Fold ZIP Zinc transporter.
Amino acid sequence: MAGTTISALMALAFCAVHIFVGKLRFLERTPRSRWLSFAGGVAVGYVFLHILPELGAHAATFEDATGFKAELAEGLVYTLSLVGLALFYGLERALSVSRDQRMANEGRDRPERGVFWLHIAASALLMIVIAYLLNHREDASMGGMILYFAAMMLHFVTADFGTRADHPELYDNKGRWVLAAATMFGWVLGLALDLPEMAIGCLFAFVAGGIVLLVLKEELPEERKSFFWPFLAGALLYAALVLGETHLAAG
């Protein structure tokens, strides 16, 4: 019961980011806010210290469930991650192309509504899976859950900030509520539906690819004018927390 309450509070905190990210005026700076670079560093730390090791663990689950050789099972897991990365890359590219076309034709720095809503729909799918995994994580310890929550909170700040920048009117009017509803739906689904380990592995692998793409997209392009030291501080701080939690759990 306590675990359910904690995961519910975490899901509500995710919703708060979706709903109120537009109120975080200190993020709207040129060059890019140092806080966004710090959050990007934490997200990159999460990719290397959680996502990649957990993909390896899910590969073992695939191997046991399918009877495939270890190399093939591992290849399937990473292929699912590649599919997630490719899907979100395609959506980001569609947004960029649509915005450029509208700027050239209409002088408006906004993507087409249909393209933006397609992006919101894909992001909502990602939110459902991430919220579902609050109740079905490979690392079920409280420390592991807190680290997952912290990394996802900061990831949502950067991802939602970038999504809102594409079309703030649509995001503020309806988009943020769609993402918040998707988050709570995913959390409820996690309570009501207990998927087999292999299915959870598939979901995690897909989400992993999407998160990797979104982290790189938000932090690395030159036009973002990111800050290296806050980015490094975020990555190192998250790494220290993960290593500390691992040491305590083992000791």
Q: What stands out?
A: The mean pLDDT is 83. The radius of gyration is 18 Å. Residues 34 and 230 are 6 Å apart (CA to CA).
